[in-house]
Amino acid sequence: MYKIERPQDFIVEEITPDGTVLEVGKDWKFEGSTGEHLICVLEKINWDTNKAIKFISRQLHVSRKRIGFAGTKDKWAWTSQRISIWGIKEEDVQKIKLKDIQVKPLAYGDRINLGDLWGNRFTIKSKDMGLKTGELAENPPRDIPNYFGIQRFGEKRPVTHLVGKAIVKEDLEKAVKTYLAWIGPGERDETKEARAKLAEDWDWKKALSYFPNQLSYERTLLQHLANHPRDYANALRKLPRNLLKMFVHGYQSVLFNKYLAIRIESLGLGENEGDIIINDKITGPLYGYSMKLAGGKPGEIEKDILKSEGLELTDFKIKSLPEASSKGARRPIVSVVYNFNATNDSITFKLEKGCYATTVLDFIFGNKPFTGNGGSGP
Questions:
Q1: pLDDT tens readout for residues 182-229
Q2: Counting beta carbons within 10 angstroms of the beta carbon of residue 155, is it exposed (0 to 12), middle (13 to 18) or buried (19 or more)?
Q3: What integer pLDDT is reported at residue 2 of this predicted model?
Q4: Using CA atoms, how far apart are residues 58 and 178, in angstroms rounded to an integer?
Q5: pLDDT tens per residue, range 12-51
């Protein structure tokens, strides 16, 4: 097992599509150029990406929708990534004064959208790593199962997939109540108490008096429901659009992890008849309303998981909340670890976008992947 003592011991540096590593702690030179969007490096320590964007937009007095970014980064980490801000000048970002956040202007250009990156470089330091670094230096990991890491679901409160499942099942009341009251094992006592108290009476107005202020998304839901008690759809719409989609993506992700675990046990990672190959990579299912199922034995596993969940692919076209619908996709079942290096108490490596450092660590230490178990709720 490994333990990250401080967020500064888990460094995540975005790699741009042209291969540039956005090194943390670096002073970047501003290049004038042209474009409507100010491109910056966002460097943060122990900040959720969505909350960082929210507070930056507040300090700039602009809509959150003006800010684009290529992907969310780990919260318990020291991270760097590109963001774009429409209609803002270089000197405007000097107004931003947020603890453990730096916004460093790079140039003017086009909006940065989700997926506009090659991947990330990770540097991980841990006292426990020293037990493994000698062995890893001689036999570095290369091709490993491409599980989604725990942060896809929430490290302290792995609830994202449960909310997503309720949305896909068109039970928006359950989705809202699960998000508000499901208790994660890693939460603070005051947060656990607030969630448990709400589950006793579902009094939205009263909950606003005792829900901790740092639970800003939960309070956003409560504020809407206090005025519109059964309007669950529009309560969810008050959340950032990418967070809303992350719920459904979380459910897709846990189903992918289940598929991969079953496949490895019964078929392995090698190619089988019926596999869908994309860009020379064997893929597994991110279920959605227009996703193509595999054939042969891989396809049987995919269909069995749908059946066990009581699902049809068309269920991912969500009538009660269309903006959360998902077409689905195919995901490589193998993750390639690039430029792996182990020294004393740390390791460094690169992964393509969509792959998780925690998955590499779990592989190294023999930990089981997250497949949807754990926690307690209403």
A1: 999 889 999 999 999 999 999 999 999 999 999 999 999 999 999 999
A2: middle
A3: 67
A4: 28
A5: 999 999 999 999 999 999 987 889 999 999 999 999 998 9
What is the average per-residue pLDDT within 304-329? 97
Q: Cβ(112)–Cβ(82) under 8 Å?
A: yes
Q: What is the DSSP letter of 87?
A: T
Q: Which among 54, 100, 95, 108 has a CA at the least distance from the CA of 76?
A: 100
75/271 Cα distance (integer angstroms): 36
Q: What is the DSSP string of 219-281?
A: HHHHHHHHHSTT-HHHHHHTS-HHHHHHHHHHHHHHHHHHHHHHHHHHT-SS--TTPPEETTE
Rounded Cα distance, 288 and 339, in Å: 34
Q: Quote the CA–CA distance of 138 and 146 in Å, as a whole number.
A: 22
CA distance linking residue 249 with residue 135, whole number of Å:
36
User: From start to end of 66-165, where are the E strands?
Assistant: 67-69, 78-86, 101-109, 119-125, 143-145
pTM, 2 dp = 0.88
Is 110 a catalytic site residue? no
Looking at 9, 74, 315, 362, which residue is catalytic?
74
Domains located in the chain, CATH noted: 7-119 (3.30.70.3160), 177-237 (1.10.1510.30), 246-335 (3.30.2350.20)
Q: What are phi and psi of 8, to 5 degrees?
A: -70, -10
